[in-house]
Amino acid sequence: MTRGLYESGSGIIGFDSGASPPWAVMKKQQFAKPNYKDFDEMWEGLQERGVWYRPAHTYGMRERLFKTPTGKFEFYSTQIELAIFEASQKGAKDAALEEMGIEAKGDEVCMPHFEQLEYETEQYPLKLVPYEIINLSSGFTPSPPFVNKTLFDHQLLRDHSFVDINPETAAKYHLKQGDLITIETPSGSAQVKVNLFEGAMPGYVFMLRGLGHTGYDEFWKGKGANPNHLIGAAKDPLSGTPVWWVTPAKIVKGQKNTSVHL
After folding, report:
1. For residue 133, what pLDDT is reported?
2. pLDDT of residue 208
3. Are residues 7 and 79 in the same domain?
4. What secondary structure letter does DSSP report for 149?
5. CB atoms < 10 A from the CB of 49, how many?
6. Domain count, the chain
7. Long-range contact list for 21-27, CB < 8 A, 24+ apart?
8. Are residue 160 and residue 217 in the same domain, yes or no?
């Protein structure tokens, strides 16, 4: 981590009382330059003085904002163009794009656009979207017990968590508020209840993260369902990041034995 701070090329170790403060320097349209020459000096200074910080850029000074070959914001990404060029050295460009899962052609490949993920829409016609709320921990650390009381009855009621579904989508499955359903994905299934919500996009099912723990205390163990058990291992073809926010899913009305496929 410290090496990454050094390689960022900016930042200051400590603060000398006799020196001009960073905000005074930046007011003169100048960048606050590092006060160390190499990584070893930075590391020694950090251990001695205990602080590294990087002042924010001054408005209007855009020279170091964009880490692109042109130094400007690029609607047409030369970085993506270079990556595709290198990938196509062993074969045709179209073959390289197909291997990457990119369907766009021409200049559109290197410009902002959407790439549809490939999955079986007939078997899984819906999309599952996990979401987070500020008053519920969604990581490994459990939430404090009193947080349980901040959840609404349409989020967690006794041991059942809810999914948000647009009434239009719910009508296609003959669902009403509070119905018990099973959400199935290629990775597993979970039993939840229905919350009709006009703000939910039709065709999508929104599931709260931070519930479904199998451990901890009586306040959280066995409370609700964990959407992480349903998320697939797909990745975005453009960025390469995991696509956990959209997983193909389907609804089965009524109770069913839940399972997780590892």
Report:
1. 92
2. 95
3. no
4. G
5. 13
6. 3
7. 22/55, 23/55, 26/55, 26/57, 26/58, 27/58
8. yes
- The DSSP call for residue 93 is H
**Which burial class, exposed, middle or buried, applies to 167 when counting CB atoms under 10 A from its CB (0-12, 13-18, 19+)?**
middle
Question: How many Cβ atoms from other residues are within 10 Å of residue 126's Cβ?
Answer: 22
Helix (H, G, I), strand (E, B) or coil at 169: helix
- Do 176 and 248 reside in the same domain of the chain? yes
Q: What is the mean pLDDT of the chain?
A: 83
Please give the pLDDT value at position 36: 87
DSSP string of 12-40, one letter each residue = EES--TTSPPHHHHHHTT-----S-SSHH
Scored b (16 or more CB within 10 A) or e, 35-47 reads ebeeeeebbebbe
Nearest 10 degrees: Cα torsion 98, 262, 211, 209: -10
Amino acid (1-letter code) at residue 223: K
At 146, which amino acid appears?
Answer: F
Which amino acid appears at position 254 of this protein?
G
* pTM given for the model: 0.65
221 strand-pairing partners: 213
